[in-house]
Amino acid sequence: MRTMIRGNESIAYAFKLARVQVVPAYPITPSTLVPEKISEFIANGEMKAEFVPVESEHSAMSAAVGASARGVRVGTATASQGLALMHEILFIASGMRLPIVIGIGNRALSAPINIWCDHQDMMAERDTGWLQFYAENNQEGLDLGIMAFKIAEDERILLPAMVGLDAFVLTHTVEPVDMPEQSDVDEFLGEFVPHYVTLDPEKPATLGSFGFPEHYMEFKFAQWVAMERAKKVIDEVFAEFEKKFGRKYQKVTPEFTEDADIIFVTIGSMSGTTREFIKKMRAQGKKVGMVKITTFRPFPKEELKEALKNAKVVAVTERNISFGFGGAVYGELGATFANMANKPKIIDFIVGLGGRDITFKTLESVLSEAEKALNGEDVSEVNWIDVNKEAVYKSEGLQ
Amino acid sequence: MELITRGAVITEPGNTIENKTGSWRVFKPIINYEKCIRCMICWQYCPEPCILKIEDEEKKKNTPAPKEAMKRLPVVEIDYDYCKGCGICYNECPVKAIDFVMEER
Amino acid sequence: MNYENEEFFAPGHGMCAGCGAPIIVKWILKLAGPNTIVTNATGCLEVATTAYPRTSWRVPWLHIAFENAAAAAAGVEAATKAKGEKLNIIAFGGDGGTVDIGFQALSGMVERGHNVLYVLYDNEAYMNTGIQRSGATPWGAWTTTSKVGTVNPIGKIRPKKPIAKIIAAHDAAYVATANPAIFQDFKKKVQKALDTEGAKFLHVISSCTTGWRHDPSKTVEIMRLATDTGIFPLYEIENGDFENMRITYKPKKFKPVEEYLKTQGRFRHLVKNPEYVKKIQEDVDAWWAKYGKYYRH
Fold first, then answer.
1. Residue A263: which CATH number?
2. Inside any domain, residue B42
3. Most buried among A265, B95, C191, C275, using CB within 10 Å?
4. Which of B3, B4, B9 sits opposite A207 (nearest CB)?
5. 3-class SS at A122?
6. Is B75 part of a structural domain of the chain?
């Protein structure tokens, strides 16, 4: 059924369709509408779930771990500072192998406080052992929200998952989506069965034990193994979803890459702008293409190697920064190609932090640098685009 | 239980009984069954817990309590496999029926 | 069903000889029985009872982190409701995990009224990390972060946080202070808490032999002195009704506080100075002058 929803609602509807049983959540801009919508669904009798209006995101994730350990399907939502406050418990959720799903309204981190879009919040959590998916639009948010449960709960995997939607650009923007039928989602997900040891008085188990050096590393290796196995399971679930619902998902989606000399790498809503930009450039005869990353954890190394193998220059455009190094995607992509004999030049472009618009002008600046690199000119490894550098140099006393 | 479980769960409830913490003991409590009045205070306060309350007639026969003492129920017995020798039982016994002596090994 | 003769907390754990906490835990589990799930804050009780691959717990048990035993319990409770089941959900936390770092999660859990029994075993300092002062450390106690010297001869210079009253002020269904050394009163309160629907909070005194610095055999004796000197009064408050607070136990004759203080190394410096002992005695007397009327037979 064709429905108009905001990005936040795509997460709320995904939870409703997945028959999530417990939702502990704390409001934060821009994802507040998720708990509001869940509260509304429950109040209307449209959804049978326990909503726990916790007093912080730290408690939201703690209650999520408690509920998941008890053996029910659990979802929550947050963003930015809220995700950062959950940080400690994110490691614990994955270490305990609990398939919790979070919807994230991807937002910048303080200071200064800023409520608009960038990916710093989720990128900062990439080492917490969670599966990570980024949506380009509300349809993807809804679909990935549903699929996240199936992937996370798979007996071979048992890892929690986060689905990111860009702050405001998606979370607050109404878009038409194809709303799956409840019966189809029921068939797709099946009844929730915890494929893990739960808190059950019939079979008393101890969850969250103390791990000494003689065992700890094996538990971490187990998470590594699960993350590696997830690569195949994600493909299977994407394929099954396509068969049932007719929408195709890939960990990375190459577009116009066949003959492209320069390939843009994108994540999230910037992919739409980039796609239009590339069409325009191709109309002018420029050999450019793009690769959209949907799955960031596990990092799709093989797919990226394949998608970018013929590129001469890869322009990574990303809304996050690791100070003292560069962007996360650039770092990981660089490492992916490190041992390859033939590799493209990989150049990093930091764009759109804290909600700064990514426009054709932004992408023209990116392309211009990438073309210099293509022509053999020296180009910086990490480039900040659309930034008033003069003002900064002045404030830092460099002029 | 397998060597490594998913999520580090422990599925054998109470399996610390494999840890024989009696090896920690320096002083050893010994029940004087002649004096014991079966008040159960030692059993009540043992923090291990390793003071057993034995009510079953058959099991009672296997305790070190002398026959005279067994006429009354229940019988308390210290499980020295786990007793760390804290001495709470010795200190709390209202009739001084527990001796506390240096452990001989 | 009565489970008093069963043990849901197994021996072989790594708690120190003479620790007060296992006495509290084993009795709460005996009274709760097997239809129980426990959440546990990080602390001695957690690390010393669940070193993988061994556990002392014979009921389902969950540890997540230091500051969230109450939030973990709230999640377990919500899921239990979602499953349409009913059981005892008990959270154990030390004073650090309860009155300090875990205070927010506890406050939230109680305010939301989850059907959870939260048990604070209060040994009055961060003992798991090695005797650092907490919000529950009493005035004048030596700890490794409230050291006694020529400039500060007192030790901790702030009074103990009145956590039971703070939680009662949330209109919690049931709040009580309890002392396993005053055994019948302790048992009655645990049972009452288990029988009450809603958020319940038990503040239980729990001696730490290494932190309080006393012989392990003296644990129960010293805890008893805490109440018999009037330092750790035993009371209960239901639904935030302070007007009808009940002091449930009163010694026939109060012992001087010095009898309690002199049993422990952490107060050694105080006992040497009659002024300090006098101050503590006056504080205790003032408490009883103010609240003594709430003693009900």
1. 3.40.50.920
2. yes
3. A265
4. B9
5. helix
6. yes
Q: For residue A88, give the chain C residue with the closest CA.
A: C65
Inform me whether the C-beta atom of residue A158 falls under 8 Å from chain B C-beta atoms: yes
What CATH number did the domain enclosing B66 receive? Answer: 3.30.70.20
Q: Do the beta carbons of residue A98 and residue A129 sit within 8 Å? A: no
Q: Of A195, A222, A245, which residue sits at a domain end? A: A245
Residues A210 and A264 in one domain: no
- What pLDDT sits at residue A201? 98
Asked whether the beta carbons of residue A97 and residue B5 sit closer than 8 angstroms, the reply is no
Strands C117-122 and C88-93: parallel
**Total structural domains in chain A?**
2
- Residue C140 reports pLDDT greater than 90: yes
* C-alpha torsion angle, residues A232, A238, A241, A245 (rounded to 10): -160
Q: Please report which confidence band the pLDDT of residue C189 belongs to, taking 50, 70 and 90 as the band edges.
A: very high
Q: Which residues contact A81 (CB under 8 A, 6 or more apart)?
A: A28, A57, A109, A110
Residue of C nearest to B1 (CA): C53
B7 within domain boundaries: no
Query: Count of CB contacts below 8 A, A vs C?
Result: 157
Give burial (CB, 10 Å; 0-12/13-18/19+) of C169: middle
Low-confidence ranges of chain A (pLDDT < 50): none
Using a CB–CB cutoff of 8 Å, tell me whether A222 touches chain B. yes
Q: Count up the domains in chain B and report the number.
A: 1
Which residue in chain C has the smallest CA separation from B19? Answer: C12
Give all domains of chain C, ordered by start, each with its CATH number. Answer: 21-294 (3.40.50.970)
Kindly state whether residues A269 and A169 are assigned to the same domain: no
pLDDT at C119 over 80: yes
Search chain C and give the residue with CA nearest B45.
C23
Q: Which of A21, A205, A215 comes nearest C79 by C-beta?
A: A21
Contact flag A197-B4 (C-beta cutoff 8 Å): no
Domain hosting residue A103, numbered range: 2-245
Pairing status of strand C174-178 against strand C234-238? antiparallel
What does pTM read for this prediction?
Answer: 0.98
Shared-domain flag, residues A256 and A226: no
Q: What confidence score (pLDDT) does residue C161 get? A: 98
**Opening angle at CA B19, ends B15 and B25, nearest 5:** 145
A258 & A383 share domain: yes
Assess contact for A110 and A125: CB atoms under 8 A: no
- Smallest CA–CA distance, residue B68 to chain C, in Å, is 24
- Report the pLDDT value the prediction gives residue B63, as an integer from 0 to 100: 76
Percent of chain A at pLDDT > 90 equals: 100
Q: Which residue has the tokens 């059924």?
A: A1
Confidence class for position C99, pLDDT limits 50, 70, 90:
very high
Mean pLDDT of the C100-123 span: 98
Domain, as residue range, for B44: 24-102
Percent of chain B with pLDDT over 70: 99
**Looking at A208, A229, A245, which one is the last position of a domain?**
A245
Residue B12 covered by a domain: no
